[in-house]
Amino acid sequence: NDGIPDKDEEKNGTDPKTPTTQTPTIDITRKPNGDAVITPKKPDGSTYPPGTVVEIPGKDGNPIVVTIGEDGSGIVPNDKLPKGDLPGKGTVTEPNKEPSQPVPVTTPARKNPTIKIEQDPKTGDVTVTPKKPDGSIYPPGTVVEIPGKDGNPITVTIGEDGKGTVPNSDLPEGDIPGTGKIIEKGKTPEEVQVKTPKKLDPNEPQTEQPVSIDITRKPNGDAIVTPKKPGVGGTYPPGTKVVIPGDNDTPIEVIIGEDGSGIVPNDSLPKGKIEGEGTVTEPNKRPSQPVPATTPARKTPTVDLEQDPKTGDVTVTPKQPDGSTYPPGTVVEIPGKGDKPITVTIGEDGKGKVPNSELPDGKVTKPGKITEPGKPAVEVPEVTTPAKVTPTVDLEQDPKTGDVTVTPKRPDGSTYPPGTVVEIPGKDKDHPITVTIGEDGKGKVPNSDLPEGKAPGTGKITEPGKPAVEVPNVTTPAK
């Protein structure tokens, strides 16, 4: 017995006589170095035995295959993961069993190394520091290539301290963004996006070091960057470039306007705040000496979920970082059963609805997603989908007559209207007892209609003009 009813197997197209792997959920977490930890779980939450094989989406249509170990998990090395998140279907196959039914799963993108570029504002020399996905440095002898003039890369060999130096004289005449390369001995080269700074003219005056680099926020999350020049009310001229810390050792550059400030769009800010140093470069001058600068984290949108206590239906309201609503046609994904998200489309009022029947059996907290028409999806770090609410059926037996009073109640405790039909377990599953509810919200079952012994099972409530709702754990008393 594989725990899957024969009828379900026939419906799924599998042979009831052949053991089939139960339909799983596939959890994927990450190690600091980017490796993915794959943990398939059975419907009851338990893990699969060693030797179980899991297939998840891979690049170019080739699935990634991982074998589960003694701890119930398997590892996919970071460099075997796709370049971008890859949604699709996954399967789980226990030893000596048929594969499970496919379930939704998203294979995460590989984590990339970075190349940190730091230019000395006095000499113009550049320090190059390649870093692995977990932030650790590369070993001595690693070779790094960064973009150079005329398409010829600049090559630097990394020393004992994990760094290498490019003399100012080897730099191009202007900034060159492009693809760099990290070549560790005996390993496949890794490509990284990087920008090589321009050569500094030692005869140019140096930009005066700012007192501070002030960063404030707009309601929509955009950052206003204002470098403060020494002196009362001192601002830097238009065209001044300010560099502040960014994600993955890639600095954020902003150009100052007529008002002495520049704007960094909210979606260009890092996921978490980054403390570091910033520099200011006036037109036709060398960069200033660095000063402390903290780049704030981007503001994320939110998804408000409000559950109707009577029906259990959930109203979904996505909100922009400034609290405003999203336009009609926006699609919101919230956590659902297993790895399958619940999708809802937003209407004219900025809201969408999820029926109670589509909610998970228990509350689920995971990231959500908002996709505005014509724009890339935005992740919401934490959304908690409430559990499905179920009505109840109260059964009270008269100790004298044996008759049973049936009172169906909504999740909030209120009663159902007259004409509601309730089914409770009878002598067998094919013969439920049916009772119609009256004006007082109750119905009655004569003692003579009751089964010979207690009958546990699932009840059903059908309100006039509405679909039936199942009620678990209803026990009809004996006659």
From TrEMBL:
- Biased region (Low complexity) positions are 15-27
Basic and acidic residues: compositionally biased ranges: 1-14, 182-202
| Cross-referenced InterPro entries | Ig-like_bac (IPR041339)
* Ranges for region Disordered: 1-479
Q: Name one Pfam family in it.
A: Big_11
In this protein, which residues make up the domain named Cell-surface Ig-like bacterial? Answer: 22-110, 297-388, 390-479
Return the protein name: Cell-surface Ig-like bacterial domain-containing protein
Q: Supply the source organism for this entry.
A: Streptococcus mitis 21/39
